Amino acid sequence: MIQQTTNNERVSDSHSNLYAIILAQVVCFVNAFSGYVIARRAYQKPFEKFVSIVLGSMSLRIMIVGGISWWCLAIMGLPQLAYSLSLAIGVFVYLFAEIIYFHVLSDRIRLRDKEQNSN
C-alpha cells in the first residue's frame, strides 16, 4: 500500500480494492491447494476413510477461511465488497474444481478397493 500525503495529512489510509481481490484469491487458492494435499495423502486409505477425511477437512478449512475473512475485514479493514465478491467467486470456482478432482480420485479408490477385495 502506498500512502499518499498532502501537507503532512494522509489522503488515503485504506487498502485498495485490488489488494482485497488478490488477497481473497490467495486465501481461496491456499484453501484449494490444502484440500488437494489432504486428498493426496488420504488416497492410500480405504474409500470410507478417504471420504471422511476429505469431508472433515472441507468443513474445517471453510471455518478457517471464515476466520481469516473475518480478520481481513474486521481487523485489517479491507474493502468489504471487493473482498467478499472475490472470495465468493473464488470459493465457487475452486470448490467446483476440488469436487471434480475428489470425484475422480474417489472413483479410482473404489476401483482399487474392488480389485483388492476380489483377489
Folded structure, characterized:
With 119 residues, the protein is mainly alpha-helical. The chain is built from 3 helices and 2 strands; from the N terminus they run ββααα. The protein has helices at residues 17-42, 47-75, 80-118, and strands spanning 5-6, 9-10. It has a two-stranded antiparallel ribbon. Helix 1 runs parallel beside helix 3. It is elongated and about 60 Å long. The N and C termini lie far apart (62 Å). The mean pLDDT is 86.
Instruction: Measure the end-to-end span.
Output: 62 Å
Largest sheet: 2 strands, antiparallel
Q: In percent, how much strand structure appears in the residues?
A: under 5%
User: What is the string of SSEs from the N terminus onward?
Assistant: EEHHH
Q: What integer value in Å does the Rg equal?
A: 20 Å
Helix content: over 70%
* Net shape: elongated
Structural class: mainly alpha
Mean pLDDT over all positions: 86
Number of helices: 3
Provide the spatial order of strands within the biggest beta sheet: 1-2
Count of distinct strands: 2
Unreliable stretches covering 5 or more consecutive residues: none
